[in-house]
Amino acid sequence: MPYAEVASSSTDDERTSFDAFYRATRQRLFEFLYALTGDAAEAQDVLHEAYARAWQRWSTVHTYEAPEAWVRTVARRIAVSRWRRARNRLVAHRRSGPPANVPGPDADRVALVAALARLPVEQRTAIVLHHLCDLPVAEVARETDAPEGTVKARLARGRRALASLLGVDLEEEKSGV
Asked: Do 148 and 83 lie in a common domain?
């Protein structure tokens, strides 16, 4: 028998062996983990991870006297590790104190964002990069891969459209009135 057929046969035997093991133990191990964690979704996640690890090492695990005990131990350790990570996150959160009271955006900012959303994406991008990120026209041109003249035109058109959407007269803005 050629080597490829022997290797394939061995892989098929392992797969069949693992499938039978999985079918015979999955409900019992799920019930164990559900009782341990108190959460069905957590029990399923932990069990799937434990079976994945068992499958990766099945050529060794299936030779153990009690492969189910190995999977049960791995699953329990995974669950404990998850509890520890959750506890550590909670401790770190408590240590940092309550979050600062962050006020919501003011009405002008909300209106600006809404008006920007109505602009064509090229004009919006040029305006945001130039006016909000303080990039010079040359840098905006480089980032958007457009000629500087095109960026200047997008800025001019975008400012006019924004002024119209926001009800601002550009001439009044220029004169400071």
From this structure: no
**Cα–Cα distance measured from residue 40 to residue 89, given in angstroms and rounded to the nearest whole number:** 22
Q: For residues 107 and 115, what is the distance between their CA atoms, to the nearest angstrom?
A: 12
The three-class DSSP label of residue 59 is helix
Residue 111 has φ and ψ, to the nearest 5°, of -65, -40
Looking at the fold, whether 157 and 90 belong to one and the same domain comes out as no
**Residue 174 binned pLDDT confidence (cut-offs 50, 70, 90):** low
State the DSSP H helix or E strand holding residue 76, giving kind and residue range, or none if neither: helix 67-96
Rounded-to-integer distance, Cα 69 and Cα 10, Å = 24
Question: Taking the model in full, what pTM does it have?
Answer: 0.51
Structural domain count of the chain: 2
Q: Which among 96, 115, 131 is the end of a domain?
A: 96
Above pLDDT 70, what percent of the chain? 90
Q: Which of 113, 96, 92 lies closest to 165 in space, CA to CA?
A: 113
Q: How far is CA 63 from the centre of its chain?
A: 39
Distance CA 16, CA 62 (A): 12
